[in-house]
Design a protein that fits this description.
By secondary structure, this protein is α/β, with parallel strands linked by helices. The chain is 26% helix and 28% strand. The protein contains seven helices and 16 strands. It has a seven-stranded mixed sheet with strand order 1-2-5-6-7-8-9, covered by helices on one side. It has a five-stranded mixed sheet with strand order 10-11-14-15-16, with helices on one face. Helix 3 (91-94) links the parallel strand 8 (84-87) and strand 9 (102-103). The longest helix is centred in the last third of the chain and has 13 residues, at 220-232.
Amino acid sequence: MLRKVGKNIWVAEQPLRFFGLSVGTRMTVISFKNGELAVISPIKIDSEIIEQLKQIGNVKHIIAPNLFHHLFLSEFKNFYHEAKIYAVSGLKSKRPEIDIDFELDKNKSNFYNQLEYLSFTGLNTFLPSGASPLNEYVFFHPESKTLIVTDIAFYFDESFPLTIKLLSKITGGYKKLRPSFLEQLGTKEKEKVKQSVEKVLAWDFRRVIMAHGSIVEDDGKQQFKEGYEWFLGEYL
């Protein structure tokens, strides 16, 4: 089910387990002035979402914002044949069966001057196989002053299951907008991360939407800054 969180911006959530933990997942939908819709980090589609999307516009842009949020790209494309799939560098080789139309370009910076984006470099996560790059792009919707991220930051609060709350308290991330301990383990190039954070902080946002965690509605910019100061071990 889509729910509106600001002018021309919607989200939809559904359950998801990662390493056995109920972290949930979220997609974000942006409506452009020409009636086209961009879907960032698509989730499993259903008839209710299809009907709601039909009411607000035409899905033309389906975006995989990093190397991990790709599970439902093809399913979305099956319903929206005219839409184009945009993906980050490396996803085509990781998932060759997905019909990717465009690779997000570091030399470009926006869709229709209404949705800005940039490559967030340097950040890795840690998997059983070792450190793995996220290759994540982050987005800024100026109209609603919203920063849209996927796996570069999380925000777990009292709305999550007990296991998630305990784990986030143990690792210092409870009710904190910051990367997880997995990114701590996997990331070495912190100067690149710092440069990416500084670019993000140049945007004028107050709300932060992430794929996993509760949306931060107010003071998101300061919370994001503090979360990365903790991660980098220095003030920004």
